[in-house]
Amino acid sequence: MDASKQICFVDMPFGKKVDPHSGMEIDFDMIYDIGIRPAIEAARLVAIRADQETSGGIIHKAMFARLLLAEFVVADMTTANANVFYELGIRHAAKPQTTIPIFATVAAPPFDVNLIRAIPYDLRDNGRLSDESAYRLIAELSKRIDSALTGPVSQDSPLFSLFPEFPGIEMSHELTDVFRDRVDYSRTFRDALAEARSVQPRDEAVAALKVIEDDLGDPLLIERGVLIDLFLSYRSVEAWDEMVALYDRMPAVTRDAALCRQQAALALNRRNGAGDRNRAMSTIRQLIDDLGPSAESYGMLGRIYKDMYAEAQSAGSARAGGYLDLAIEAYNEGFETEPSDFYPGTNAITLLLKRDRDGDREKIDYLAPLVTFAAVRRGGERSDDYWTVATVMELAVVSRDYDMAERCLNRAVALPGLESWMLKTTRNNLTLASDSENDPAALARIRRLISLMDDVIDETDSSVNDAD
Predict the structure, then answer these.
(1) Is the CB of residue 425 less than 8 Å from the CB of residue 387?
(2) Distances from the Cα of 457 to the Cαs of 270, 424, 438, 451, 466, in angstroms?
(3) pLDDT (tens digit, 9 = 90+) per residue, 233-247?
């Protein structure tokens, strides 16, 4: 089995079973062999049925793992088999989409599943598929899979459809040995990505990642974790074109994930080609409409407006003030939504300093201790997380504790996993703080911090020396 490919798990009876309504003996193995499996393979997914499980151990563990983690599940409701319906219920409780029920027309499905959009198929009197019925089943089933892969995403679980806040079940492949091959592949794949990212100069790192992407084949067929690892590796080397191109080719369900939508907006904003900013804002606003407000989404919206403000101010545009107001509003909304996430609060403070309108200082005095508390709860200046330490540094600059700021900077730039775009984000915030400072001694200290950041940026990515 190709561990990088998406799986379609088939939930159905095995062998020959008698339908209690019609009395017909139905050959389910034959239906799987000439109708279901060919449809899955026509859609270029990996087909697996519970009786074909090769992971060893208790079959129930493997079956439940597949129901919870497989990208697709086909469930045959024919004969109203109790096991199938129990397993279908588990799947519907775990995943909002990519569950495809089918049934033979020898009897109508039970009332409770009549609202589910299922694919019917006809059987001959001997309980077997005719060539014509098999052809129709293959066509309809592969079409449904293709539609789910390319989008738009539609929910097929009654629970998720009826209850918008229903949480579902998120579970890592690493929690079960059923997906051991996938976990092993992911580790090897991440090592290859890390090696590619380390290549210098940056253009060659991008080229190395592109070779890995080409070797994977069609992104529509690739498992979500593999795609996201590649997606974020492009971000690490600031390959914004490649990020956007990969996002546009992802399966619809992966593309619809909050993380992917947020990072696609980041890439569009950084690339800033024709129409990119509008698309980035539209992506984030639609995400907020779909999944509700979050600090990450509003933080991303604030970043877009902040960049638009910086560009408008540099060009002497009258729009600069409006963009600054919108950036502050977005960051403030993000912090109010999730006060435990200090990132939007820190940015709100930095921009309020820059705007310095009546009431802004009072707002800063209100936000600063709350943001500081949120950062301290994550470890503060002793944290091993870059963003936490960088936030404490920026707060220290606001309070003019430059010794603390320099200590935080020294720690932040020594932490593992540092990427150039992260440093540039912090450097940009320090530049905004310096623009708001009138005291010559304080300004000199901030400029020293910026100079130190520039040195580390040069070391981190020798091919990119200009700050965002």
Answers:
(1) no
(2) 17, 7, 26, 10, 9
(3) 999 999 999 999 999
Separation of alpha carbons 12 and 24, rounded Å:
17
Please name the residues in contact with 261: beta carbons below 8 A apart, sequence gap of 6 or more.
255, 283, 284, 286, 287
Tens digit of each residue's pLDDT (9 = 90 or more) over 69-91: 899 999 999 998 899 999 999 99
Q: Tell me how many degrees the CA angle 358-364-365 measures, rounded to the nearest 5.
A: 105
Cβ atoms of residues 1 and 181 within 8 Å: yes
**Could you tell me which residues are beta bridge partners of residue 104?**
121
C-beta separation of 337 from 293 below 8 A: yes
The first and second tokens of residue 187, run together, are 């580790």
Report how far residue 187's alpha carbon sits from residue 194's, in angstroms, rounded to the nearest whole number. Answer: 11
**What integer is the mean pLDDT of 394-399?**
91
| 193: nearest Cα among 216, 172, 176 | 216
Task: For strands 25-27 and 16-18, give the pairing.
Answer: antiparallel
DSSP string, 146-186: HHHHHS------HHHHH-TT-------GGG-GGGHHHHHHH
pTM: 0.86
Residue 173 has pLDDT above 70, yes or no: no
- Cα–Cα nearest to 447, from 406, 415, 408, 413: 406
In single-letter form, the type of residue at position 299 comes to G
Averaged pLDDT of the chain: 90
Asked if 9 and 67 count as a contact pair (C-beta separation under 8 A), the reply is yes
**pLDDT given at position 462:** 59
Residue 9 has pLDDT above 60, yes or no: yes
Residue 72 and residue 92: Cα distance in Å, rounded?
12
Residues 6+ apart with CB under 8 A from 8: 40, 43, 45, 46, 47, 48, 70, 71, 72, 73, 74, 145
Cβ atoms within 10 Å of 292's Cβ, excluding its own:
11
Question: CA-CA distance, 347 to 394, in Å (whole number)?
Answer: 9
Distance CA 370, CA 222 (A): 42
Cα-based distances in Å from 102 to 111, 133, 158, 269:
15, 13, 16, 43
